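Predict structure. Chain length: 395.
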Amino acid sequence: MTNHLPRDEQDASDIIRDASEKGILLSLSGQGTKAEMGRPNQTDASISSASLTGITLYEPAEMVISAKSGTPVSEVVRTLAEKGQLLPFEPMDYRPLLGTRGEPTIGAVAAMNISGPRRIMAGAARDSLIGVRFVNGRGEVVKSGGRVMKNVTGLDIVKLMAGSWGTLGFLTEVTFKVLPKQERMTTLVLRGLNDAQAIDALSQALGSPFDVTGAAHIPARDRQGASTLIRLEGFSVSVDYRLGELRRLLKRFGGSTDILEGRGAEAVWQSLRDATVLTDGADRAIWRVSTAPTKGPEFTKRVAQALEAQWYYDWGGGLIWISTSGDGDAGASVLRETTQSLGGHATLVRAPAEIRSSVDVFEPQNEAVMTLTKGIKASFDPSGILNPGRMYAGI
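Prediction complete.
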């Protein structure tokens, strides 16, 4: 299979236009660290942004950064750190979960709307994405959005590209708004709560005026007891005050409490961000479930009644990472039935290719939404050559 490595945007345009005219199906990627996600592509050739690298604009005072799509996330993070800034949405690194190598790219962060624990405070990647350049399925170069936050021209297309998984266009440049890095990070840990108690505590913390930037719960497992984690960031004196107030607010939940700071706290939140809490067996399937936080404990209870599963909660209980056996349908029938009953969306993040080919990787859409999805795909990629079938069969 031919692997195209365009040197610049015009080169990418020529490659895609030629593919469109010849009916050549293209698999889109950065450095391939997430190639094993989504439905397996049935394509004739590939096009990679790996050679489209470099930061094209950085205005620390305006808190805006632009980079070519193949730029490693680590380069963007390092550049921002030098000026005391960061990507607000704390993008996940899928390599530990998928066992892949290479460097995650900033274009993939936008294309897959990759976010982490700070989403509950800062929003998702799409909420910080304010500008894109991409090549559509006709080979046309499209620019949407701007490089300053007040410029909202074309904002809808910007949001549409976030989470489209390369099915609508080949990203060549992305622009994000950024935030200052906080002076201090600390984590309040409540020990020994069951799932329902933990979600109640997290809801109390998130509903308080104390600006929680992380809210997660790891149930008891093996010889480790349950841990409910609440993260605070900011100026040190503010963190101390909010920490004291939260301890008083959550005192009724009883049990012991700890404070995590420094590298230990950073490591815990990184393991939650990257779902390495669940990576105890490469043969197990991994699911990502979004649901109402108050329904999270009931959701996992029903799943556990039908499957051998392990899980933890992020986003105050609104995000559940679930590990199931990789045999059969990897628990798809049980999870789909549960999302239909309780509400929510389940995405199969890791499983063998044969399973990802035979079950719905993303939550099935109703007829009206699927019709809309097909219409959007046809308007951006009328020949259907870009990442065909990556999200839904036939699209």
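Summary: The chain has three domains: 2-180, 184-273, 276-358.
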